[in-house]
Amino acid sequence: MSGLLSGSNVAAKPSRILFFPLGWVLAHTVRCIEIANVLRQRGHEVFFAGDDPNHPSSRLGLVQDAGFPLLYAREPNLPDIWSRFQRLGWKASFWDMVHLRYWAPLSKIVESQLQAIEKVKPDLVVGDATVSASTAAYIAGVPCAGVMNGYAARLLTPPTPTYYAAKGLDRYLLSGIRRRLYQKYQRPDQNAFDMLYNMPMISPDLPGLYSLPKRFRDYHMVGPISPDLAAPLPDWFDELQDGTPNVYITMGSTGLLEHFLCSTYPTLGALPYRFMVTTGGQVSEEVMNAAPSNFRFTRYAPGSQLLAHARAMLYHGGNGSMYHQSLAAGVPMLALPAHYEQRLNAQIGVRQKFGLQMSVRRINPNKLVRQLERLMHEPVFRQSAQRFSSAVQNANGAANAANVLESVMGG
Question: What fold does the segment set 2-223+396-410 form as a domain?
Answer without folding.
Answer: Rossmann fold (3.40.50)
